[in-house]
Amino acid sequence: MTGGTKAKNQDVYGSDKPKFSIKALLHSRTVIEKDGYVSTGVLTHAEGDMMEIELTEFKQFDLGDPVSLTIYSPVGTHRLRSSVIAKASGALAVLFPERSFAGLDERRESPRVDAVVQGTLKHKQSRTLMVQNEPTLVEVEETFELVTRNISDTGVAFQLPAGPKLSSGEIVDASLKLEAPFECQVEIIRKDESSEWTTYGARFLELNELQHRALRAFLIHKQVGAYFHLKQDKKSRQ
């Protein structure tokens, strides 16, 4: 009896659950509940930091509402907590709490979100100048304009219309104009000089908790906006 109980508990809590793909959750009947109000819909999208649930009673839910979800999928029943981050006609978008899915066979990389954001980059160079007829090594800091191509919670791709040629491994200070100014340090990890402007890929260094929250809020906002915009475009073409 003891061995049977242990095996059952392992299945319930997920330590020995069989692995499954995110796609296995799609089109699953999903019960969504808040403050005793219960509605049933269908999970139609799960990617990045969001899931979409199509349901007719979407007007009963407001942005920021904490909700409980029960997903009846071919790979088992999943119960989790989330919150409403967007709503549209016939659908709600909720946060994707990846850790709540025991057995998920995909380590989701940080989603890269297309985002054109203005910013600046500070570049320091050492130069030898003549001071009182003596060569003197001085450090000069210059500021250059940049524009991002995409952003994730671990890094950013950006272009410099003009400015220095950065090298892999170089660390620079940057400021991005998100909802609020986002000050950070980035390390250059790659560059592409095939276009008129040089495109750089960089990773964020030592972000604190407030920076992580601000960045994630920005990314979720962009993900939701891009998804519902694409969905609306598809609907208008039908």
Question: Would you mind describing this structure in some detail?
Answer:
- The chain is of the alpha+beta class and about 240 residues long.
- The chain folds into two domains: about 20-100, predicted glycosyltransferase like domains (Thrombin, subunit H, Beta Barrel); about 115-220, Thrombin, subunit H (Beta Barrel), CATH 2.40.10.220.
- It has two helices and 13 strands, in the order H-E-E-E-E-E-E-E-E-E-E-E-E-E-H.
- The protein has helices spanning about 1-15, 210-235; strands at about 30-35, 35-45, 50-55, 65-75, 75-90, 90-95, 115, 120-130, 135-150, 155-160, 170-175, 180-190, 200-205.
- A six-stranded antiparallel beta barrel has the order 1-2-3-6-5-4. A six-stranded antiparallel barrel has the order 8-9-10-13-12-11.
- A hairpin with a 2-residue loop joins strand 5 (about 75-90) and strand 6 (about 90-95).
- It is elongated and about 80 Å long.
- Mean pLDDT is about 85; it is low at about 1-15.
- One of its GO terms (molecular function) is cyclic-di-GMP binding.
- It holds the Pfam family PilZ.
- This is PilZ domain-containing protein.
State the strand order across the main sheet.
1-2-3-6-5-4
Q: CATH superfamily name of the largest domain? A: predicted glycosyltransferase like domains
Instruction: Give the integer mean of the pLDDT values.
Output: 84
Radius of gyration: 24 Å
Let me know the number of strands.
13
What would CATH call the class of the largest domain? Mainly Beta
Say what the CATH topology of the largest domain is. Thrombin, subunit H
Q: What is the CATH architecture term of the largest domain? A: Beta Barrel
- What's the shape? elongated
